Known about the structure:
The protein is mainly alpha-helical. It has helices at 10-23, 32-49, 55-83, 85-98, 102-117, 121-129, 141-188, 200-209, 211-225, 233-243, 252-263, 296-321, and strands spanning 267-268, 271-273, 276-279, 282-283. The strands form 2 sheets. Strands 1-4 form a two-stranded antiparallel sheet. A two-stranded antiparallel sheet has the order 2-3.
Amino acid sequence: MDLAALHPNPQVLAGAVLLDLAIGDPVYRAHPVRLMGATLTWLENRLRAARLDGYGGGIALFLLLAVLWAGGIAAGLTALAQWSFWLCLAVHLFLVYSLLALHDLLRHAWAVERAARQHDLAATRVAVSRLVGRDTSRMDFAACRRAAIESLSENLADGFVSPLFWYAIGGIPGLVVFKIVSTMDSMVGYKTERYLRFGWCGARLDDLMNLLPARMTWLLISVVASFFPRCSALKALRIGWRYHSVLPGPNSGWSEAAIAGALQLRLIGPIWAQGLLVTKVWVGDPADPPAGARSDVPRAAVFTALTGLLAAAAALAFIAAYPR
């Protein structure tokens, strides 16, 4: 079997990144991630009906999704390559493009800023609720803007840098497996009675697959900060190292703390969930002002886009240097 159709391709990746930035994620019923989610729900119901609703069921869910999706796409692409090289290349390109999410991340953040500039607090809270899971009813415009910046930084890592990383390392199978794990984490990776055991596999695999990309994002943010106006590369490194463990999970804190240091702003602040104050910790240099000004979200969005482009350039360089 010729596996060349599955290998990372620098021209395909460059095209996919340009398509994502220009158009954004395509919205349609048969989107691969939507279909993965539907498959996950169907399998979860079957596994629970078979009383496999603990750790074993969660592991079985991952294995079945990997066989069906990663295995199915790999088999389909290799078979298609035997029939038409160009059609295979087009499908390969469309898959990579569909599984990157930088444009949509920037669009959602701008929706928050646009509503804030119209002085519509209710609309601003609605826009930010699409990005974060905290209570928005207590959030003012500044808190909404901070949440948008936090979402930009966190999702830069797991929504863009991680897919680039796993595509560069493992081609289409690596990218698809990462998206399977990411979908599992978002759908079943909760610490609730229903999912504490069943979702353990997805949550832990998501932590593992984002481990290196999250730390790479910290370094990429520091590089961009060295030439972006009014930024500090040193603070990005220092604040990322010092504050990454303040945030929950082993990975999200690296990019969130790094962007706070890079932009020389403080993030987080008081957060409410289910009517309770869950944290009032600030992340960033205590001497820096809290984020929330009119210029902060646009500045963070441009910074995020540049960091994403640098990550894409690094992935392209890696693929070109180590061709399969």
